[in-house]
Automatic annotation (TrEMBL):
Its main location: nucleus. One of its GO terms (cellular component) is nucleolus. The keyword Repeat applies. Keywords: Metal-binding, Nucleus, Repeat, Zinc, Zinc-finger. Belongs to the NOA36 family. The lineage of its organism: Eukaryota, Metazoa, Spiralia, Lophotrochozoa, Platyhelminthes. It is found in: Nucleus, Nucleolus. InterPro entries: NOA36 (IPR010531). It comes from the Eukaryota. This is Zinc finger protein 330. It comes from Echinococcus multilocularis. One of its GO terms (molecular function) is zinc ion binding.
Length: 251
C-alpha cells in the first residue's frame, strides 16, 4: 500500500510504519476489498448502503497488524491462515511490531528473518555442525543435507522405516521433518577448528606433520620465558639500588 500522508510504499498494515498515520480507505487483508456491499456475510449490518473506511473494519490481525473487514468469512479464516504467525526472527527473537514488518525467509533452513539479520544469518547458515560430510548414523559419506539440523544423511538413513513417502516430493528429514536436498552439498562447508591437530600445515602429499611441527612454537615460548626472567632480574637490581645511600651504607 501507499501511505496517504508520507507517500511511502509498504506492506498492507493498519497504520503507516513511518509516520503512524491511519489510512483513509483501509484494505482487508483477507479479501482485499475497500468497500463492503450490502449483500455480504457482514457481522455488522449496514442496510442497503455501501460502507468504506473504518465502518468496514471488523478487526485487526494480531500477527500481521492489518485490517480485516467485518465479513464473517474473513474474520474466521484470516488469523488461521495468516503467513505472519511465525514472524519472530530466529536471530534477534523480535516480532513484527519491533523489527518493522519486513520478513525474509532463509534460502537454506527456511526460517523467518528480519531485515537486519538476513545477510548475516544466511552467510553462517551454509555450514555443517561436523568436520566431514559423513552420516551421523553409519559414518558413511552422505548426500542428503538438512540445513536445520546441519547434518548430512546417506541414502539409507535418510528414509525412515514404516513411513510412506510421496513420489516426486523431497524426502523429509528423519529428525526435524525439514525437506532434504542434495543441491546444498555443493555450497555448504564443514566446521573448522583453529587449534590442535588442524593447526598443522599439510605437506605436498596432503599428510599432516609430526611433533616437530610444534618446535617453532616451543622456541617462541622459551624466548618469551627468558625475556621474563631478564625483566625480573632488572627489577631486583633497581630495588636493591634504592636501598643504598650515597655513603655506601644500606638503609
Amino acid at each position: 500500500m501507499e501511505c496517504d500522508k508520507c507517500q511511502k510504499m509498504q506492506k498492507n498494515r493498519a497504520f503507516c510504519y513511518f509516520c503512524g498515520a491511519v489510512q483513509r480507505l483501509p484494505m482487508c487483508a483477507q479479501c482485499g476489498k475497500q468497500k463492503c456491499i450490502p449483500k455480504g456475510d457482514c457481522v455488522v449490518k449496514h442496510g442497503s448502503a455501501h460502507v468504506t473506511g473504518l465502518a468496514m473494519v471488523g478487526a485487526i490481525c494480531d500477527f500481521c497488524e492489518a485490517w480485516v473487514c467485518h465479513g464473517l468469512t474473513c474474520l474466521q479464516m484470516h488469523a488461521c491462515s495468516c503467513p505472519m504467525q511465525d514472524s519472530i526472527c530466529v536471530e534477534c527473537h523480535r516480532d513484527i511490531s519491533e523489527h518493522g514488518g519486513r520478513m525474509f525467509t532463509c534460502a537454506f533452513c527456511a526460517k523467518h528473518l528480519c531485515g537486519d539479520d538476513q545477510f548475516e544469518h544466511q552467510a553462517s547458515c551454509q555450514r555443517l555442525e561436523a568436520e566431514t560430510f559423513k552420516c551421523p548414523s553409519c559414518n558413511r559419506i552422505g548426500s542428503n543435507a538438512c540445513m536445520r539440523c546441519k547434518a548430512v544423511f546417506c541414502d539409507e538413513h535418510a528414509k525412515r522405516k514404516g513411513f510412506k513417502y510421496t513420489p516426486g516430493q523431497p524426502i523429509p528429514c528423519p529428525k526435524c521433518g525439514h525437506s532434504l536436498d542434495q543441491a546444498f552439498c555443493l555450497s555448504i562447508s564443514t566446521r573448522q577448528y583453529a587449534f590442535g591437530r588442524q593447526r598443522q600445515n599439510l605437506d605436498e602429499e596432503g599428510e599432516g606433520g609430526d611433533y616437530s611441527d610444534y618446535d617453532d612454537d616451543d622456541q617462541a615460548d622459551e624466548a618469551s620465558s627468558e625475556g621474563d626472567e631478564e625483566g625480573e632480574d632488572e627489577n631486583n637490581v633497581v630495588a636493591a639500588m634504592g636501598k643504598i645511600d650515597l655513603h655506601g651504607r644500606e638503609q
